[in-house]
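Predict the structure of Phage P2 GpU.
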Amino acid sequence: MAVMYSLGKFLFSSKTIVPTSVVHGMSYNWQSVDRNGRRPARQPVSIGLETVSLQGVTYPCDLPNAWVFDDLRAQANEMRPLTLISFGSRESGNWANVLGLWTMDDVNEDRQALWPNSDPRKIQFSLKISFYGLDGQDGAWSWRR
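Done. Here is the predicted structure for Phage P2 GpU.
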């Protein structure tokens, strides 16, 4: 079983769900400062919220456990930051990258092509997480370390 990511206790793998799209976003906070007789100047205030959106499609007949979203929601219901780890392989071997603490903001599943018993044949999903922050540190965090 190849694991792509882990978020807390949840593993994104061929046995659960595999995202087909990962969108990494970052916002930056600037303040406009009025100047006499000139246009306002922009002053940096802070690095804003960092988010990751994972999206994909799964077919429950392909999964040993088609209801993995219940596990994700149960973990989100605990309302605490979770460690995000990405896994991969390179020429030098397998690696894991600890990406810090993240909060689950949205867990969405769209159950489609329902069987007569209301079980889905197809599920489109999205998960939005946000970087929790670095307690006791003032340095910027980087997606690539």
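DSSP finds one helix and seven strands in the chain.
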